[in-house]
Amino acid sequence: MSSMSFLEKLLDGLEVEWKALGEIVKTVTAPAKLKRESYRDVGKTPIIDQGVNFIAGYTDEDVKALPCNEYVIFGDHSEHIKYVDFSFIQGADGLKILKTVSDVSKYIYYAFQNFYQKELNYKRHWSRASETLIPIPCPENPKKSLEIQAEIVRILDTFTEMTTELTTELTARKKQYNYYRDQLLSFPCSSVGTQGEVEWKTLGEVAKIGTGSHDTQDAIEDGDYVFYARGREPLRLDVFDFDETAIITAGDGAGVGKVFHYAQGKYALHQRAYRIVPSEVMEPRFVYHCIRSYFYAYIQKASVSSSVTSLRRPMFLNFPIPVPSLAEQARIVAILDKFDALTNSISEGLPREIALRQKQYAYYRDLLLSFPKAKPETPLECGEITWIRSAK
Predict the structure, then answer these.
(1) Taking a C-beta distance cutoff of 8 angstroms, is the pair 49, 86 a contact?
(2) How far is Cα 110 from Cα 114, in angstroms, rounded to an integer?
(3) Which of 5, 77, 158, 249 is most buried per CB count within 10 Å?
(4) What is the arrangement of strands in the sheet containing 55-59, beginning at the earlier edge strand?
(5) Cα–Cα distance measured from residue 164 to residue 162, given in angstroms and rounded to the nearest whole number
(6) For residue 95, which of 117, 71, 120 has the smallest C-alpha distance?
(7) Domains 6-160+353-384 and 188-323 agree in fold
(8) Helical H runs in 233-283?
(9) What pTM was estimated for this model as a whole?
(10) C-alpha–C-alpha distance, residues 291 and 319, integer Å
(11) Distance CA 164, CA 155 (A)
(12) Whole-number Å distance between alpha carbons of 98 and 22
């Protein structure tokens, strides 16, 4: 796609008019809303809500639904903008259902998504969002305008479909990974002791477990060493505490029992993060896979509370772990590491491909919607377009 000629060819010398979103959409009141207690996990009609999940539930009730491919959804208490390509029923209040004046409603969705700037004052959220300027190409030639809008939608839909396909593939591979992981790590009886040829021990018997000494405020942006704190993203520090191979996890906070790092070499450690250093009878990556797969379920079951927000050393010491031969551990690690790279690595595998497609989509969305910004009351001609430099 030539960035120097594509829009010029589409516009063919015609003008672009910028209109406030509120002028080209109308808010719609849903025919019916259901109480949350009536939501079901399965059903014939989706119930949509604002927020990340979008589809909050389903219903089989005989309730009039809104048709597909006509509406854009905007959460009054979030920045989530969605295009609804299925028939639906509105869920919670605070959800704006926007019906566009344009026959190419998805173009308005893409433009709104691109130019919207989140309003932090929620009481004025929609009033400010409705002021978002949307470019309308060739306003004096409706037929040409719709053709341009439809072509832009076609291109952006192509990138969206590519990302969706990769995401679906990733979900399938994660299920496959979980299946093989459970098969490979399913040894007879998880109680401590000898079961057939596999001996079960506690983690405290086969690993050293301890914490670090640093606080988050000690972090230095350009430090020489990795600094594992309690979050998913490691920090940096100019000194190191340990030089070893270890499994690192948060001692408290949102990542408890869920976020694990595999440390190799010199690193620094937070005072509320734990290091698990396997002994010579254990392959470190085997321990990593066992802990990452089953430790969270173990501490949830062992805890007296419904949610675990803080870990203590005894929780690690008593975690049961199988001890097959080192050769068998290595065989299992080789298989699980391949699945792990495919499903979780941001430098290779499907997550990397998805990230690249998302960047590609964002680049072309910016390019395709880079119409000239006109001064008030002064339309700009096509020749005054400013182009974005090609992505590298």
Answers:
(1) no
(2) 6
(3) 249
(4) 55-59, 45-48, 89-90
(5) 5
(6) 71
(7) yes
(8) none
(9) 0.56
(10) 9
(11) 15
(12) 9
- Report domain extents, the chain: 6-160+353-384, 188-323
How many C-beta atoms lie closer than 10 Å to residue 247's C-beta? 25
Token pair recorded at residue 108: 């308005």
Q: Angle at Cα 111 formed by Cα 109 and Cα 115, nearest 5°? A: 120
Q: Average pLDDT in the 177-182 region?
A: 83
Q: What's the CATH number for 188-323? A: 3.90.220.20
Structural tokens at position 71: 């509406």
The answer to whether the beta carbons of residues 39 and 21 sit under 8 Å apart is: no
Radius of gyration (Cα) for the chain, nearest Å? 27
State the DSSP H helix or E strand holding residue 150, giving kind and residue range, or none if neither: helix 142-184
Specify the CATH number for 6-160+353-384; select among 3.10.20.90, 3.90.220.20, 3.40.50.720, 3.30.420.40. Answer: 3.90.220.20
Identify the band that residue 177 occupies on the pLDDT scale cut at 50, 70 and 90. confident
What are 54's two structure tokens?
């979008």
Look at residue 329 in the predicted model and tell me its pLDDT: 94
Nearest Cα residue to 160 out of 357, 391, 3, 366: 357
Q: How far apart are CA 48 and CA 298, in angstroms?
A: 34
User: Tokens standing for 29?
Assistant: 């009141």
Q: What is the pLDDT of residue 365?
A: 75
Separation between Cα atoms, residue 386 and residue 380, nearest integer Å: 11
Percentages helix, strand, coil for the chain (3-state, rounded to 5) are 40, 25, 35
Query: Considering only CA atoms, which of 79, 65, 77 is closest in space to residue 28?
Result: 65
